[in-house]
Amino acid sequence: MTNFLFELKEGLIIAFNAIRANKIRSVLTTLGIVIGVASVVLMSNAIKGIDKSFQDGISSFMGTDNLFIDRWAWFSNVPWWELNKRPPIEMEDFEKFKELAELPIAVAPLNDAGNVTIIKGNNSVSDARVSGTNQDYIYTTNLEFDEGRFISELESNNARRVIVLGFEYADRLFPFGNAIDQDVQLNGKKYKVIGVLKKQGSFLMGSFDPDNQSFIPISSLFKDFRSKWSGSGITIVARAPNNQMLYEVKEEAIGIMRRIRGLKYNEEDDFTINQQDAFLEMINKSVGVIQIAGLFITALSLFVGAIGIMNIMFVSVKERTHEIGIRKAIGAKRSVILRQFLAESAILCLLGGLIGLLIAVAGGKIIEQFNFPVSFQIDSIVLAITISLLTGILSGLAPAWTAAKMDPVDALRYE
Amino acid sequence: MNIITIEHIAKIYQVGTEEVQALRDVSLTIDKNEYVAIMGPSGSGKSTLMNILGCLDTPTKGLYTFTGKHVSDMTDNDLASIRNKEIGFVFQTFNLLARSDALHNVELPLIYAGIGKEERRERAREALTKVNLEDRMDHRPNELSGGQRQRVAVARALVTNPSIILADEPTGNLDTKTGEDIMALFETLYEQGNTIILVTHEEYIAEHAKRIIRLRDGLVEKDEIIETRRVAQPRQI
Lengths: 415, 237
Ligand SMILES: Nc1ncnc2c1ncn2[C@@H]1O[C@H](COP(=O)(O)OP(=O)(O)OP(=O)(O)O)[C@@H](O)[C@H]1O
Ligand SMILES: [Mg+2]
Fold this sequence. Notes:
The complex is a heterodimer of chains A (415) and B (237). Chain A is an alpha+beta fold and 415 residues long. Chain A has 13 helices and ten strands. In chain A, strand 6 and strand 7 (189-197) form a beta hairpin. In chain A, helix 2 packs across helix 11 (334-369), helix 4 packs across helix 8 and helix 9 (276-319) packs parallel to helix 12 (378-404). Chain B has 237 residues and is of the alpha/beta class. Classes of the chains: A alpha+beta (415), B alpha/beta (237). The interface between A and B is medium-sized, with 24 and 27 residues.
């Protein structure tokens, strides 16, 4: 063992000397690894960042402990036209549910107004996401306020025209701030801003961006944007006291809904209890796909780098054939020669990897400026070192083996 | 006691479809503390024989016994170990590592022998002192004269205290005076009880030995004892 460490040390010294002797060539060769490792680290962190912001976005948007009781199923094998036969959930159902449900800590109705444009002076948000709900909705979410407050019970009961704006909406409508108590137009109807939500800083663009939403009393929504009796009904949001209770709350909710709907024991549920798990699962799946695609691309660039190293190591072995002959003539074993060249290529790659890591960190800092989430952790360093060492050893293997099994006489004769 | 016994050694190279018989049938024994010169015209198989004796190469046919062990039965690692510990090689073209200084070149066999740094340095310095190069230890080969380079090579050959020193035309690239310096070094080693085998073209170099083996076309032509051998004198520097 000590002998091995000793040989390793000697090998490292030889390798360093060899690399120093061919500085420019080493730098050029290592470039492939530098780029490869930089892109692997950057990509894996970007993916982690995207994943985290998806998760955070979903969680703050829907709440982890929430159940969404709906006529529609978010994910289901049942075709939509079957689901369409289900009766919609109405406000009366919600009232009954709220009365009967004992386990949830908060129950709120939820419905979205379609096709709304919010206008303030010259500024507008078209196709805005406007949700109708009541005062209790705030207890089913983790929404925080920049200024102002959520919809009150009074405003809810009396269908007052008030609105709570997500950060982005507020920013677009009131670029200079001071949104509170100002009026905005929702499809021509005058609504008073009573609250602005805190910036969640999500990278998400689509429909789950907590910064791009707004809330009005559900009663106002029915009054201004659709008839109470048309439409496809509402969603009931029920929040469990904690994640462990989620199952019991769900069981209770199913029982209550069946009672409200008057279903017989042999009839199937005509509603669905949706959970954000389902969303997270779907997101994990798509993040997984991004991950695989990203890693495949970066692995490809690393592979190109590895080929470069292998190539230069073959050249190095060829050039030093005579030296190998000398070493063998005075007693170097195959394993010694093998280790010497493996150490050389490993060090070459390691240097490249460390430079790549620095570039990735610097690149990450730059990308962060553009609001793209990059999460850097210690495991990036471990990843870079492991990958570059591994690449070095793998790509050095074939050249090192050619060197190790050279015939001493042939090698000595080589000019 | 003989160190080397070879019996009916042949070495055949396959060049394309043609067979080149570098050695046809060579048998000889060499005793401890002998001083042998191998001579012969170019292409007669001298280097081939030396490589086989030095365990750098293996014969196509025949039996080689080195200090009682059959070389043909040995693994690659065994051969490397013999080359490292039992044999000191000196080449015509010096064969030093160009990028390393004299001290490191001499240290190298000790590195492969697994000897620790302190002892290694010490022994390498000692060997370089023996060849009168104590003031050139940190010079690289290209900063040394031909004679100095060959002395580094001799120091490298003797640093492991081998049982035998093999030299293939050690003076071939040196002028007469410098060649004589190297021969004086061998003389000292011989007096200290080392076994020396050297290949040479020069009659007057061969006369330093006690025995001359003449090869021709891969066969031993003549094996003679020198009655009045020359004794190389170290030059006063
Ligand atoms: N690797 C090889 N492949 C083919 N033929 C070889 C090889 N090595 C040596 N030979 C042949 O074997 C013969 C003996 O070669 P060797 O090098 O032993 O001669 P030598 O006596 O040392 O000659 P010189 O005095 O010129 O050094 C030559 O004919 C040479 O062409
Ligand atoms: Mg020769």
